Predict the 3D structure of the following.
Amino acid sequence: MIDAGTLKNLPAGFKSRGIRVRDDDQPIQPGEFRDVDAPGGNIREQFFNLPFTEPSTTLFNLLGFLVQAGQKFAAITDNNIGNDAQNRAVGTTVAMMERGSRVMSGVHKRCYYAMKMEFKILARIMAESLPPEYPYDVYGGPRLIKSQDFDNRVDILPVADPNIMSMAQRVMLAQTQLQIASSNPMLHNIHEAYRRVYEALGTKQIDALLKPPAPRPEPMDPAKENARALQMKLLTAFEFQDHDAHIAAHMAFMQSRMVQINPQVYALLQGHLMEHVGLKVKNRVFAEMTSDEEMKRLQMEKPEEFSILFESKVSEQIAMETQSLAQMERQFYAQANQDPLVQLKQQEIDLRAMDLQRKMQEQQEKMEFDATKFGAC
């Protein structure tokens, strides 16, 4: 078809030998007329054009058939996804988009691979041509870039995903992740799921739009931990803390009347106390085992057996520490409950304190309910 169109637009043929055309070695420009010396004065009889015809309808239909066959073979047939009147599932739509963009995905992956190879070539050239130390200013202060920085220890990779080509596909995948995360919030990070949706949409200043996540717990001294326990806030023990000092401080605070009349605060401190006991025992057992050469060898050669033995010794030590703490608690109660009059008076004070706490809690719940009701109105 292209050849037929070319011959039709640029015809060729025969001309009479006796005819003379000035500047016949140059093509005629549009709108140009040249002098011709024709015998007999009739130019039309001096030329004969070869009978080239335009592309026929049959060839045009053949071209359409070849295009359709190529699209089917390459799996790039157009899918009317946006014109679908039915409520199609998200997974089905994503599958159709992947099928329709299979060829473009292959091209995109090859571009990704080519960029990776180009970066590796640039890194190799820099490793071979850079001096041992080259001054190069970067953000934050002067740095020295060396040829050693481009050796084989570091792989140069493009920061991109070759499987995702369009923004619509990226947004659809992010929305699917958010839908799955919302179905079970206990197993997922909802804040991160929403952040990925906004990043896929290209939203700016996401931190100003999303609320910051809950801050991570930080190590505190025993006094602050006791104060947080009175506020019914969770406490966290850290491995590097002085566990003996924390245990002693919490044990003394748990013996006060303020904690004794509040079972919830007492239970919170008791759980935090056991965390310190567990970390303390683990540190001690690990130090004892690693000081032995035979145990070091067992840790290097058979880590599973070392882990089983470590957990067994930790359990034994925790049982002993728990019995010691329980015995100390029983001794304290035995000394405090020697006088029956004092015991009765303390029980009376406990009942009044518990009744006061119950009233305050009911009043707070009522205020929260009223605030919620007025806010809904």
Q: What stands out?
A: Residues 340-376 form the longest helix (37 residues). The chain has 14 helices and six strands. Residues 232-336 form one domain. The mean pLDDT is 77.
